[in-house]
C-alpha cells in the first residue's frame, strides 16, 4: 500500500510519524529516505512520541550512529547511517542484532542498509516541496 501526504509544518510531520508507529507490528523497521534537512528526524520524533518518548529526547544520531530510546513497550532503535561507509561498520554497530531486539527500528539514510529478507518494513520518502511543505510517501 502506498500513500502520499503533504505536510505543511513540523507538527504535521510529527503527527504522520506518530500515526505510522501506531499501525506497525512489533519489530518493524522504518526506512527513511530524503535529502539533508528534509525532515527525517522530525518524522522519527513523531514515531517515538507514539511510544511515550518525549520529543526533546529524540535527536538524530548522526555522530553516535544509533540512539536507543527505552519505552514501556520496548526499545526504539534510531539509526542514522549518513556517515556509514561500508557494511563492516554496520556489523561492528551490531545492526542486525538491534533490528531483532527493538519494538521498532527507525533508519535514516536507509539506502546504506541491507535489511534482512522477510523483515516487516515501511518505506518513507520525504521530499522538499518548498521551505515549509514536504511530500511524504509511505509505502508498506
Cα end-to-end separation: 5 Å
Going across the major beta sheet, what is the strand order? 1-7-6-2-5-4-3
Our estimate of the beta-strand percent is: 25-35%
The count of DSSP E runs of length 2 or more, i.e. the number of strands, is 7
The backbone outline, from C-alpha atoms, is globular
Give an account of the 3D structure.
The structure is a single chain. Helices cover 28% and strands 29% of the residues. α1 (10-23) crosses α2 (40-50). It has helices at residues 10-23, 40-50, 87-93, 95-101, and strands spanning 2-7, 28-34, 66-69, 76-80, 104-108, 121-128, 134-139. A hairpin with a 6-residue loop joins β3 and β4. With 140 residues, the protein is α/β, with parallel strands linked by helices. The chain has one domain: P-loop containing nucleotide triphosphate hydrolases (Rossmann fold, 3-Layer(aba) Sandwich), CATH 3.40.50.300. The chain has 4 helices and 7 strands.
Amino acid at each position: 500500500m502506498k500513500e502520499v501526504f503533504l505536510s505543511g509544518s513540523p507538527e504535521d510531520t510529527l503527527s504522520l510519524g506518530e500515526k505510522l508507529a501506531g499501525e506497525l507490528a512489533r519489530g518493524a523497521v522504518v526506512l527513511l529516505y530524503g535529502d539533508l534537512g528534509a525532515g527525517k528526524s522530525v518524522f522519527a520524533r513523531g514515531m517515538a512520541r507514539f511510544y511515550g518518548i518525549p520529543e526533546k529526547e529524540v535527536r538524530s544520531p548522526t555522530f553516535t550512529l544509533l540512539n536507543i530510546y527505552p519505552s514501556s513497550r520496548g526499545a526504539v532503535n534510531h539509526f542514522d547511517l549518513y556517515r556509514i561507509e561500508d557494511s563492516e561498520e554496520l556489523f561492528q554497530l551490531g545492526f542486525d542484532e538491534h533490528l531483532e531486539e527493538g519494538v521498532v527500528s527507525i533508519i535514516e539514510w536507509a539506502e546504506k542498509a541491507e535489511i534482512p529478507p522477510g523483515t516487516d518494513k515501511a518505506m518513507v520518502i520525504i521530499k522538499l516541496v518548498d521551505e515549509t511543505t514536504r511530500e511524504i510517501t509511505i509505502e508498506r
